[in-house]
Amino acid sequence: MLAIVCPGQGSQSPGFLSPWLERPGVREQLLTLSEAAGIDLLAHGTTSDAETIKDTAVAQPLIVAAGLITAQALLGTEGATLDVASKLAQRSVVVAGHSVGEITAAAITGTLSNSDAMAFVRERANRMADAAAATPTGMAAVVGGDPEEVLAAIAATGLTPANINSKGQTVAAGTLEQIAALMAAPPAKARVIPLQVAGAFHTHHMSPAVSALETLSPSLTPHTPQVALLSNYDGAVVPSGADALESLIAQVSRPVRWDLCMETMTAMGVTALIELAPAGTLTGLAKRAMPGIATVAVKTPDDLQAAQDLLAAHSAHQEGTL
Q1: Which of 205, 118, 193 shows the shortest CA–CA distance to 158?
Q2: Exactly one of 92, 99, 166, 231 is catalytic; which is it?
Q3: Is 99 an annotated catalytic residue?
Q4: Is 315 a catalytic site residue?
Q5: How confident is the model at residue 70 (pLDDT cuts 50, 70, 90)?
Q6: Most C-beta atoms within 10 A of its C-beta, which of 22, 47, 93, 201?
Q7: Domain architecture of the chain: domains with CATH
Q8: Catalytic residue among 34, 92, 98, 202, which?
Q9: What 3-state class would DSSP assign to 295?
């Protein structure tokens, strides 16, 4: 079985979408997604600087749009109505997304339409940005150390373990003063690395964004995923579209358990993993937590052939092998 994974905020970098504009249909798709997002994704993916695309209101729609474009290129549906979900449904595939990447995952599994996904991420990004502006907050990765000691140190400073990405990496979130306290007294054999994000995501600080998304929810039309979609709340397969939407809303203020997603992938027999753009972070985690797994991080169009080869080698049609 093959996993397709979608990265979260912080994975973007200046100009990362520039190489994709050379592919047919990408510019037009970006313009369509920009209209739905209410921002110029074409400019932000090509010419905007690091500080601009760090802004939550920009970063989140940009990351979801990048994932949709990459998935379209991977499945060969460029220049046409995105039909990734139906093509994935013919294969033995599981899909998961980290934080905002879970919206990308919902779209490519057919759980949300592209327009609903962009409407959702637009509201999520704007309201999370508002919540982050209310109180100076941030996040820091704690790398290494004993997992129990790491959690104890995070709790001692009043921080929340917002992302448990693997046994060796937990992301703490809270006020800047709390993060400074953790950096001043890190857990034994661990490093504390501040992240370039603008708020304490996946904590109680984001509660106002949850309320806004609950208000938006009735205007969206979720569908049952066409392929297995994992929740990054508990790593379990999401049973329905309604459950997926509920999970997407709730995860804004509750921790991301990417470690559990990887455990589920391993239990399902995943032997290969493709990470959609802006790729790199999740393949790195998989290499450490899922020994022997084959991975491709699709950062530029130059990576597509390797990803397509992996898809062909590790994914079977329902009616037979590829």
Answers
A1: 205
A2: 99
A3: yes
A4: no
A5: very high
A6: 201
A7: 2-132+203-314 (3.40.366.10), 134-194 (3.30.70.250)
A8: 202
A9: strand
